[in-house]
């Protein structure tokens, strides 16, 4: 029997779909914040998802390629409602931000760039660092508790992420194996881990000409880049600016800014880039190619995680990967802070955002983001020259 059979859903599919629509429309802060919101809302507040299922989803999202937050949303949809739930959750999570970047892409081309966006991003980027820091703290204290081994893994992965400025997938798997070995002391060929890591290969989507190039490139981005926007941005830059010359440096920076000032997954910037390169068809194919691999991988791997979920070995393996994932998330906060906190006002904005969320537990994050955007518009002209 699977976990979902033993613990029937206490919610309807339409309720979960509505939640992910709202998260996709209002969830700022990138993958670190988004996975934190899902834990807070679905595990702690509503009790729809068990802690064990959330941890397995987070572990799978870390060891499989693709955008972290979207994969976790798909897995949580699968927990009780299988493929239909995974499809509804993933689509609902991505749709709002996709529509937003389409509108911004149209405005960008129609009005010759978005100079005001630099001012908005100046404030929003700083506030997002504060939001991410609070989310990372909550994830760490909730999942690692007082386990010294897990905290050691957390520290190592945070340091590696800061030093390398990337997320190294094999370290997540190594962390899982380490905790498994320490806790279970397995006998040779015990088969404890089972089929924990199925990673299917995915065919490229066919379309002629430039659309084919776009689709193949973004499918590779979705299928071979691990973790979060932190990992995918350098990959995108290398292909879009350096290799194919589809965008200029400034256009690419604007595309990343669009991802940061819009809610939902950071990787939705692929829709904006696709629109700039090839209009509406380019946007649709770029977004589809980016998210389809992680959807298929998650749906195909989820039954294995659920079937073997209560085995002691797999629980230990997941705990190790979870500690590594949270460490990498914490490290990415530092890396992104180095890029976003460029002067004293941005540092103060980040500290203020974190302090507000720490003190006012029920303060909605979009309120903090909106306030930071207004402050950015006011402060940016004083510290920069257009």
From TrEMBL:
Pfam short name (any one): Chromate_transp
UniProt keyword terms in alphabetical order: Cell membrane, Membrane, Transmembrane, Transmembrane helix
Compartment annotation: Cell membrane
Transmembrane spans: 20-37, 58-78, 84-107, 119-137, 149-182, 189-206, 218-240, 252-274, 280-302, 314-338, 344-360, 367-384
Membrane topology: Multi-pass membrane protein
Highest taxon of the lineage: Bacteria
PANTHER family to which the protein is assigned, alphabetical: CHROMATE TRANSPORT PROTEIN-RELATED, CHROMATE TRANSPORTER
Family: Belongs to the chromate ion transporter (CHR) (TC 2.A.51) family.
Name by which UniProt lists this protein: Chromate transporter
